[in-house]
Amino acid sequence: IIFPDTTLVSLREIFISALADGDDEIIFFSCEIQKFNRYGLQEDRTIVITSEHLWTFEQESYNFTEHRQLSLAKIVGFTLSEDKESHEVVFHCHEDYDERFNCGTP
User: Fold this and answer.
1) How many Å apart are CA 47 and CA 58, to the nearest integer?
2) Which has fewest Cβ within 10 Å: 17, 21, 35, 97?
3) Whole-angstrom distance, CA of residue 20 vs CA of residue 102
4) 8: nearest Cα among 65, 67, 78, 50
5) Which of 44, 52, 10, 5 is nearest to 28 (CA)?
6) Sheet architecture: strand order including 75-80
7) Collapsed DSSP state (helix, strand, coil) of residue 25
């Protein structure tokens, strides 16, 4: 299981608990990102990509709360920014709204 260095124990405990409950999801990737809301403003999040879902978590003080759980089956594609200075990616979703992230520094 790979977590960013700044991710606190509480986020690890969420997934350890899920795995203990018989969930067979495998964690492939996690990092801190900025999510764009519908007004174009950036909000800090932690993204976790598993074998079945794309999760986003919001950090409040020392606790993480689940912001969104998106099934990978709903993701139909993604777009990467052509600008070499930009680190933006958009996940396009079927029957749901798209998610736009900045994976670089704000």
Assistant:
1) 9
2) 21
3) 32
4) 65
5) 52
6) 63-71, 53-60, 42-50, 27-36, 99-102, 88-93, 75-80
7) coil
What's the whole-model pTM score? Answer: 0.70
69-93 confidence digits (pLDDT tens): 888 999 999 898 888 888 888 999 9
Q: Pull the structure tokens for residue 101.
A: 């992230």
For 31-67, what is each residue's pLDDT tens digit? 888 898 889 888 888 888 888 888 888 877 667 777 7
Query: Is residue 12 packed enough to be buried (19+ CB in 10 Å), middle (13-18) or exposed (0-12)?
Result: middle
Q: Which class for 102: exposed (0-12), middle (13-18), buried (19 or more C-beta within 10 A)?
A: middle
Phi-psi region of 22 (alpha: psi -120 to 50; beta: other; left: phi over 0): left
Spatial distance between the Cα atoms of 70 and 44, rounded to a whole number of angstroms: 18
